[in-house]
């Protein structure tokens, strides 16, 4: 082919999450089917720093930007590369794809069909035979003899007919059986020797095989859709075909022996002994503590989550973990490795969703029910960007039952949007004077400075199984508060993890007698074998029964075919007239576009919105079960990059929680929450503003 020329040049290569991107000189050797790279062009005559076999590889342009692409070799090795611009990326991708196709077809000519090949290890001899001892260059794919196929050249692919689809289904069933044989063969290997069941290449096969079968099932569904469209006409323009939920029920064969045993801990640090010696929570005082905002100081902690630290070195740990998981498995009781943790608790993450308190307080300043609903939607959509620390998916600490987190925010009253206009472009620079006098409870009088508003926040882990968190925030001066409870349900989805946020929140605007109910979207950690990233998905509804206004917001996940990342769309409407008063579209972590009923359109760049730092008490003033004090040794170890020490502290906390739970079960002692009370299926703050304000008004009426 005229396009089979050797090409070379500089590309950026993602080395690891510590070193990051580095310039390397790449050479595409078409004759040998190799992609090689060197430190620079001058070292080209030396041995390559790295080499990838392109036969059977997959070349994929990335969704992250227009410059990045990946080369996924059949061996499981991956190069993540970045060109200088989109044109150069297309040049490299097209040449690599041509070379890959050529050498893949060449292998197909020299290999028998897949159905005549065996995935069994029986033909390879016993574990001690020479046949099992791999040569250094022999990878797991070649060891198991995975063949490649190609369509006859020069022939047009016929339209898929129903009987052909039956044949495809039959071939997929055969592939499922071969995949099960593959897994059983791996698990029958010894745990030591030249080829073991914990070999990294074999773990890669084991971890990805189920995701591959799920992918094949999705592709089969697409073929069915295409066939249906040929019967009824083509699919409408702009149609996107999304990935489906798993439909293939694979056998429960993902067992890899007993759980990892850790050596007995000797000479534990004093901090670990302290973590294990904290008394049974119900023996501590469970009386609610009133936090004085004046004791809280502006947070100077700035733990950026820019990378995954030692993820490259811990790759085998991830593969070993994934090899034991099944599609749809609940991950609630699965202990994940420490190096993927954020340096904050889930309870603090909920607080970080409140990082724009000026927009929160401005909701009640809306002059009409329509404007207040629109303001709430505007605030709601701005909260997720700051709630995530960086683009890479990392997991906050699982809160210990009884764990709490307290903080507050202060903002000048002049920074809060006044009555007229929307929040982002109509900030008033004079203090807002509400038309209705706010009646405060006596115990809250005098706490608010006349020059600023204060928003107080408290969160508590009210249940361990299932894991349920309650959180509450209030602004006494503006007579508004929000109460929510969230049950986090996580599932393994192959090459991603899905977290469903089950629960409900209610925003109370007491000046207007309005309640706004809302839910939260699902979250997904994608590409967990490479560089994991976060996306949100699902439909969220916001309703106000009193005013008849509602909002419907869709967080769109990246479709399999077409579409963009992090897309969100929504609309606000009046239910009685069914009239849409506001539409929104854009990306929840970038730019949002709001179009209002008067024809006005406004854009919000979330990356440029000012963030108000939360105020927290110093560690020495925090209780033993407040998040930062509870996890302080884990956090310090993660900051120092000492993963082993962080794991030791984390395990001590989890072990203590299990012992306490066992003791409560044996003594039939119920758990006593501190700040939240069970209310039907939900949890409500013990002293919500709507109760204290109502009591104060009743007391004032009686005195008159």
Written account of the structure:
- The structure is a single chain.
- This protein is α+β, with helices and mostly antiparallel strands.
- Among the domains are: 7-109, Pleckstrin-homology domain (PH domain)/Phosphotyrosine-binding domain (PTB) (PH-domain like, Roll); 328-421 and 451-685, Beta Barrel (Porin), CATH 2.40.160.120.
- Helices cover 26% and strands 25% of the residues.
- The protein has 13 helices and 26 strands.
- The strands form five sheets. Strands 11, 12, 13, 14, 15, 16, 17, 18, 19, 20, 21, 22 and 23 form a 13-stranded antiparallel sheet that branches. Strands 4-3-2-1-7-6-5 form a seven-stranded antiparallel sheet, covered by helices on one side.
- It starts with 6 loop residues before the first strand and ends with a helix.
């Amino acid at each position: 082919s005229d396009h089979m020329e050797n090409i070379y040049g500089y590309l950026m290569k993602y080395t690891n999450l510590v070193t990051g991107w580095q310039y390397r000189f790449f050479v595409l050797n078409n004759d040998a089917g190799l992609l090689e790279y060197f430190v620079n062009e001058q070292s080209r005559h030396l041995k390559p720093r790295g080499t990838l076999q392109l036969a059977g590889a997959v070349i994929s342009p990335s969704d992250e930007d227009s410059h990045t692409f990946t080369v996924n070799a059949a061996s499981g090795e991956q190069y993540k590369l970045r060109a200088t611009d989109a044109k150069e990326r297309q040049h490299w991708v097209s040449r690599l794809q041509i070379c890959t196709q050529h050498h893949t077809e060449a292998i197909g000519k020299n290999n028998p069909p897949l159905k005549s090949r065996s995935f069994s290890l029986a033909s390879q001899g016993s574990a001690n035979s020479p046949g099992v001892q791999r040569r250094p260059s022999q990878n797991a794919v070649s060891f198991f003899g995975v063949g490649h196929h190609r369509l006859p050249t020069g022939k047009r692919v016929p339209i898929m007919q129903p009987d052909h689809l039956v044949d495809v289904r039959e071939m997929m069933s055969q592939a499922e059986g071969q995949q099960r044989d593959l897994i059983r063969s791996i698990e029958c290997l010894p745990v030591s020797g030249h080829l073991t069941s914990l070999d990294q290449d074999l773990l890669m096969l084991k971890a990805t095989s189920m995701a591959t079968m799920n992918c094949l099932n999705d592709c089969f569904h697409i073929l069915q859709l295409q066939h249906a469209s040929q019967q009824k006409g083509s699919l409408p323009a702009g149609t996107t075909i999304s990935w489906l939920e798993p439909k293939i029920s694979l056998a429960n064969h993902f067992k890899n022996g007993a759980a990892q045993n850790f050596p007995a801990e000797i000479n534990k640090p004093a901090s670990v002994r302290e973590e294990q010696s904290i008394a049974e929570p119900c023996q501590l005082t469970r009386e609610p503590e009133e936090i004085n905002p004046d004791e809280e100081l502006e947070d100077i902690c700035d733990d950026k989550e820019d990378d995954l630290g030692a993820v490259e070195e811990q790759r085998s740990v991830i593969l070993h973990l994934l090899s034991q998981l099944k599609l749809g498995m609940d991950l609630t009781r699965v202990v994940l490795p420490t190096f993927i943790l954020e340096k904050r608790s889930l309870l603090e993450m909920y607080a970080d969703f409140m990082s724009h308190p000026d927009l929160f307080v401005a909701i009640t300043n809306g002059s009409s029910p329509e404007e207040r609903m629109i303001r709430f939607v505007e605030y709601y959509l701005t909260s997720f960007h700051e709630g995530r620390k960086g683009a890479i998916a990392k997991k906050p600490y699982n809160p210990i039952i009884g764990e709490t987190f307290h903080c507050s925010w202060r903002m000048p009253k002049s920074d809060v949007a006044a009555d007229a206009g929307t929040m982002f472009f109509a900030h008033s620079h004079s203090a807002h004077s509400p038309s209705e006098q706010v009646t405060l409870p006596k115990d809250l009088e005098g706490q608010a400075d006349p020059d600023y508003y204060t928003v107080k926040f408290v969160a508590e882990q009210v249940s361990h199984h299932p894991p349920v968190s309650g959180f509450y925030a209030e602004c006494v001066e503006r007579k508004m508060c929000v109460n929510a409870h969230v049950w986090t349900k996580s599932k393994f989805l192959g090459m991603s993890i899905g977290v469903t946020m089950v629960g409900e929140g209610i925003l109370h605007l007491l000046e207007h007698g309005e309640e706004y109910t809302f839910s939260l979207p699902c979250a997904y950690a994608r590409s967990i074998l490479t560089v994991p990233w976060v996306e949100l998905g699902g439909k969220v509804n916001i309703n106000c029964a009193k005013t008849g206004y509602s909002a419907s917001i869709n967080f769109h996940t990246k479709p399999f075919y077409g579409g963009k990342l992090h897309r969100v769309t929504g609309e606000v409407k009046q239910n009685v007239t069914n009239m849409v008063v506001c539409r929104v579209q854009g990306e929840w972590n970038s730019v949002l576009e709001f179009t209002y009923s008067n024809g006005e359109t406004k854009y919000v760049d979330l990356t440029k919105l000012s963030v108000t730092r939360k105020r927290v008490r110093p560690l020495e003033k925090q209780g033993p079960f407040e998040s930062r004090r509870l996890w302080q040794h884990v956090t310090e170890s993660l900051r120092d990059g000492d993963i082993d020490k962080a794991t030791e502290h984390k395990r001590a906390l989890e072990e203590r929680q299990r012992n306490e739970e066992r003791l409560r079960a044996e003594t039939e002692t119920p758990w006593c929450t501190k700040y939240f009370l069970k209310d039907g299926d939900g949890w409500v703050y013990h002293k919500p503003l709507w109760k204290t304000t109502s009591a104060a008004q009743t007391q004032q009426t009686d005195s008159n």
